[in-house]
């Protein structure tokens, strides 16, 4: 059962940090509810401490994403190196094409989509092999969307905590595809059905958070999330006119605040 603790201090931020120390967790690992923002008072009279509730995030929500910190750090370093290598490899090939004007015909567009899919598939499989998570990549190609799905026995290694490694691989795939295909095309990288499962988790978080906000009438500060995941939660909660959401902080620690609509 999840244990929620209530903490008081002279400010909301101090209360949060105090609670995190008690739990031995980081802010990314808890859901924070502000029960009272406190009151400064005048000359020390009428002062009221801020009160917050900290609830550890349920572990099963991200169990499929967890890999060891050492492995994650190594993978991120390889991703950075691969990204630089990939850009150098294709720099000359596309240098002259940037100056070509005029729209491409249908046949040329299809050829470029197929070439982008073929090269990016091989590129992603090469990265997976480098990480020691050998995999095959299935590709689905449409005019406005390209999806790459890893099939591997080491899903956790390619997903990373909170999907951090998978998101990095998706950025690399986007760079690869957009070197071949000009214009708008969505690129997504998945491992098994991770994206679908993560989407369900975000929906559950959105619904649970909305219930807490409506019950307590206090804002809830969610853990830092990638922009598109914050967008998913915002979209889910936008249907509820009694709830409002906005983002605070700076990337990559930007988080969503859910509160009662004014």
From TrEMBL:
Signal peptide start and end residues: none
InterPro entries: Jag_KH, Jag_N_dom_sf, KH_dom-like_a/b, KhpB, KhpB_N, R3H_dom, R3H_dom_sf, R3H_KhpB
Molecular function GO terms recorded: RNA binding
Cellular compartments annotated: Cytoplasm
PROSITE patterns, A to Z: R3H (PS51061)
Region (Disordered): 86-108
GO BP: cell wall organization; peptidoglycan biosynthetic process; regulation of cell shape
SMART domains recorded: Jag_N, R3H
Domain R3H: 196-262
Top-rank taxon, per record: Bacteria
Alphabetical UniProt keywords: Cell shape, Cell wall biogenesis/degradation, Chaperone, Cytoplasm, RNA-binding
Cellular component aspect of the GO annotation: cytoplasm
One Pfam entry name: R3H
Free-text comment on this protein's domains from its UniProt entry: Has an N-terminal Jag-N domain and 2 RNA-binding domains (KH and R3H).
Subunit structure as annotated in this protein's UniProt entry: Forms a complex with KhpA.
Function summary: A probable RNA chaperone. Forms a complex with KhpA which binds to cellular RNA and controls its expression. Plays a role in peptidoglycan (PG) homeostasis and cell length regulation.
HAMAP family in UniProt: KhpB
NCBIfam families in UniProt: Jag_EloR
Family label: Belongs to the KhpB RNA-binding protein family.
Annotated protein name in UniProt: RNA-binding protein KhpB
Gene this protein is translated from: jag
